[in-house]
C-alpha cells in the first residue's frame, strides 16, 4: 500500500516539526539580541548553577556550531555552543541553564533520565536494524520480519517519548533557577519561556512523527493478517 490514512497524521507532525525548527531558530535569534539584566555569559551562569548544586567537578566547555548545546552524561560535561558560551543574552542564559538542568537530573538520578540512559544502548542497536526489517518485511511480504521490525521500532519510539519528560523537567528547573537565583528579572521570564518552549516543541514533534509511523506499521500488520 503506497498511501495509508495514517500518513496524513505523519505529514501533519512533520509540518509541526518544520514549524518548530523555525520557531527555535527565530526565538533564539530574537532573544540573542536581548541582553540579560545580570550581564552574565552562558558559561558564567552554567558555572554558578553547577557550583550551587555541588557539581564542582562538572566542567563547562564551548563547542562549535549553533544550537549544538548538550549535556554529556558519560563524561559529565556541559557543552555550550559558542553563541551561548560567550553570549550574555536571554537566549544564552536560558539554554545554559537548561543544560545544567540535565546535569542536576543526573546527580539526583531523575527517574526518566536514568531510564533513558539504560535504554540508550538497546535503542542504538534496534533503531538501526528496524528500518531494514520493515523494508524486508514489505518487499518479501513477510509478517514475521514486519512484526520484528515493529518491535524494534517500538523501542526507538519509547525512547523518544521518555525524552519528553526529561526535556520538560530540565526546562522547568532552568526557569525556576534563573529567577530564584537572580540571573534574570521577572519581566525577562517571557523571553526565557519563548526560547525553551520552542525547543521543547521540537522534541514533541519528533515523538509524534515516530508514534504515528509506528501506529501506521501496526495497522498495516494487522490488516495484512486479515487478508
From TrEMBL:
The chain crosses the membrane at residues 6-22, 119-140, 146-166, 195-222. This is Peptidase. Keywords: Membrane, Transmembrane, Transmembrane helix. Pfam families: Zn_peptidase_2 (PF04298). The keyword DNA-binding does not apply. The keyword Transferase does not apply.
Amino acid at each position: 500500500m503506497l498511501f495509508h490514512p495514517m500518513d496524513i497524521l505523519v505529514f501533519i507532525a512533520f509540518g509541526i516539526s518544520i514549524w518548530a525548527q523555525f520557531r527555535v531558530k527565530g526565538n533564539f535569534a530574537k532573544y540573542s539580541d536581548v541582553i540579560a539584566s545580570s550581564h552574565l555569559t552562558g558559561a558564567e551562569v552554567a558555572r554558578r548553577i553547577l557550583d550551587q548544586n555541588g557539581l564542582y567537578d562538572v566542567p563547562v566547555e564551548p563547542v562549535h556550531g549553533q544550537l549544538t548545546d548538550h549535556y554529556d552524561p558519560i563524561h559529565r560535561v556541559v557543552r555550550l555552543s559558542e553563541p551561548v558560551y560567550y553570549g550574555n543574552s536571554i537566549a544564552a542564559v536560558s539554554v545554559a541553564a537548561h543544560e545544567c538542568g540535565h546535569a542536576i537530573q543526573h546527580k539526583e538520578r531523575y527517574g526518566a533520565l536514568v531510564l533513558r540512559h539504560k535504554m540508550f544502548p538497546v535503542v542504538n542497536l534496534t533503531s538501526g536494524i528496524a528500518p531494514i526489517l520493515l523494508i524486508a518485511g514489505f518487499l518479501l511480504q513477510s509478517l514475521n520480519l514486519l512484526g520484528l521490525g515493529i518491535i524494534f521500532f517500538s523501542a526507538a519510539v519509547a525512547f523518544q517519548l521518555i525524552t519528553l519528560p526529561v526535556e520538560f523537567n530540565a526546562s522547568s528547573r532552568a526557569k525556576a533557577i534563573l529567577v530564584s537565583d537572580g540571573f534574570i528579572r521577572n519581566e525577562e521570564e517571557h523571553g526565557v519561556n519563548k526560547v525553551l518552549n520552542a525547543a521543547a516543541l521540537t522534541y514533541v514533534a519528533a515523538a509524534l512523527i515516530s508514534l504515528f509511523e509506528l501506529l501506521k506499521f501496526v495497522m498495516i500488520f494487522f490488516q495484512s493478517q486479515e487478508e
